[in-house]
Please model this.
Amino acid sequence: MFNFFKRNKKENLKVNITLEEQIETLCNLGISFDDYASSSLVENLLFHFERECYEENPFILLLTTIGSDLFDENDKEIRMSKDVWNFDTEFIEDESIYNILVRNFVELTQGDLPLNNIDSRVDFDQEEASISFELDGKNYHWPIEFNDDWFDFELIRILAKQANNRNKSKMFIYFTDGQSLTILYCDKTVFNKLNDLTDNKFNKLA
Model:
């Protein structure tokens, strides 16, 4: 495993960490990549950004990219990791968009937060929104704050608390870059090591 964690912060900022080293470091933390063993992973990454971009902004750009729903050079929709999710928080433009958002959020837990019967509604005329779901046989119905086309961050904060109540060894963590939000679900060790690698970019969601 690469020895990045033992470098102090000033040293780490000066070191040129190659894209391949970044990928291997994240893999050693348990973050999975589709097509990790093939050349197509790096090819897909370089299709979206130049190598220099990843290496000038180590780990942050890589995590953002592998967690995004993108298209490859053959116009096939891909997400390069099931363990990272990135999305634009200013795109609430469909009445059932929260169905998709909450499912993506829940999928990060790989079974720790088994929501069923997710159903959301955004009424743009009345400027109202709500979501309902079932968890452990109990039905929930929550209002969602309507703010034009902006995502309600408080919704996933509450869901993160639900996940924490079920599995206290893991947590949702996130960082923002403008209106882009990147989320992972991990244990405390991974959270601390990611902050070592990214100059404390990550925060706990709940």
